[in-house]
Structure formats: structure tokens, C-alpha cells
């Protein structure tokens, strides 16, 4: 009987402790965002923003968004989030993006959605650019970049709520002089066989004489661009991330892998019945081939690399 009472008291105390921990955790989350007041606890304090140099006329941006806004203020940061049927996660993604800094706009490009993604994004505080038709893989990034007004452009996805503390390093890197701030994510390279998309990313960086980047790529989120980088790369090129990556490196922009976010583990696995190869992997693979073709067309058949002392004409 004593043993039974002792066990009951033990489990009751354990349950009370778990409840207290849950309440404390909930209280901490509430300090970051107060419903109805938009009172956010910013990761990059306003003090840091006021020390930035004036935004030059050579980097003039659009005065209005695609929705027809008349506000001429140019924000520090534009967060660009393509979304298609992501009603469940988009609210959390937007709220984390809004916590990065006070002077930010969050653009959600809702395309081809049949659920309540647009309404959920708007409730969370985003500006919504809505398209009835699907824009295709990475099309939303291109549209969002064209509408963005910020001096820093940060790209992320609607299905992965990345904490603001893990988004801010990309913004800080751009403010410190980096042009393209990449996710320092190499993918599961130890897995046998290595996924062809992972191989493609490493091969592209090797071809660009940037093996130090390893698997870091504009194909992966999150990543950020300076306004200068966007002008050099071109908005339309963002629809093919490996090509944008190749243009950024060959143009002499400062490209760095600045912070690690394990998006492979964070992204929920979506089980689909397929009888053939993954169509998304095929798209990304073909995008890398497009980038390689551009490199050889621009820098020569060896992609700008030396042929050392070979005299190939003697073999003909």
C-alpha cells in the first residue's frame, strides 16, 4: 500500500513539473508576439538599423508593390515567400519573418492555391501577391523579387517555419558587405549513393572554382541578396537558381555560406506514390545543366579553367 501511494505521489509531482514547464514555455513564446498588437521582439534591434549608410540613388527601387501600394518608404528588408496550398504553416513562417527587424516587409506570393493560404498569410501580417495559376518551381521568387522594395532580399519557403534567430544571420551578412548570403548546408553527402541533386550542387561550385562553398547553393533556402546582387544577376534569372548562382560567382559578387540551417531535416517528408523518378529532382537537375551550359558558352568549353600544357591540336 505504501509503495502504491509513493508511486502515485511521484507521478503526480512529475505531471505538475511537466505542466509548469509547458506554461513557462508558452509564456516565453507570448513575449515574442502579442496577438492583436503586432508587438514583436526583434532579433535585429532598431539601433543597428539606424547606423546603416544612406541608400544611394544608384540603387533606386520601385515605389509601389504589385498590389498598388502608394507608400514610397523603402524598407530595410524584404522577405519573399512563395506559397502554394500552405495554409497550415504560412502563419508561423510570416510571424518569424516579421521578427527579424522592425523595418521589414513580408511578401507572400500565393500562386495556384486552392486553400486558405492567402487569408492566413494576410492575418499573420504579410502583404499578399495572389495569382490564380501556379507560377512553376521558383517562379514565385522571381515575382516577389520584382515587387520587393527592400535593400536586403531574404528568400524562404512557406512550408518550413524557420525561427527568426536563424534568419537574421543572412540579413546581417548582407548589411556587412556580402552580396549573396547562402545557407551553409551541404546535404547528406555521406549517404550512399549520394542524391544527384547534392552531387550537382557540389559539381557546380567546383566548376565555378569555389569548392569552399561545397554544397551551398541558391537552390536552398534560406538565402539573401543585396540590391546590387539582384541588379547584377537579373530578376528573371532567379527563376533558375543554379544559373543565378553561377552568374553571381562569375560576376565577382561576394558570395558566402554564412549560417547553417538543416532544412533537409526540418522539411517534412511528403510521401507520394511514384512509378518513376522524382519530378522536382529532375527540374533541379536540369536547372544545373542550364547553368553549366551558360558557363561554357560564356567562359569557353572548359568553363574558364586552364588546359595546362596540353596542345590538343596535335592530336587531330
UniProtKB/TrEMBL annotation:
Pathway: Carotenoid biosynthesis; staphyloxanthin biosynthesis; staphyloxanthin from farnesyl diphosphate: step 4/5. Gene3D superfamilies: Spore Coat Polysaccharide Biosynthesis Protein SpsA, Chain A (3.90.550.10). PANTHER family: GLYCOSYLTRANSFERASE, GLYCOSYLTRANSFERASE 2-LIKE DOMAIN-CONTAINING PROTEIN. It is found in: Cell membrane. It comes from Paenibacillus pabuli. It comes from the Bacteria. Its main location: membrane. This is 4,4'-diaponeurosporenoate glycosyltransferase. GO terms for molecular function: transferase activity. Catalyzes the glycosylation of 4,4'-diaponeurosporenoate, i.e. the esterification of glucose at the C1'' position with the carboxyl group of 4,4'-diaponeurosporenic acid, to form glycosyl-4,4'-diaponeurosporenoate. This is a step in the biosynthesis of staphyloxanthin, an orange pigment present in most staphylococci strains. It holds the Pfam family Glycos_transf_2. Belongs to the glycosyltransferase 2 family. CrtQ subfamily. Keywords: Carotenoid biosynthesis, Cell membrane, Glycosyltransferase, Membrane, Transferase. InterPro entries: Glyco_trans_2-like, Nucleotide-diphossugar_trans. Residues 78-181 form the Glycosyltransferase 2-like domain.
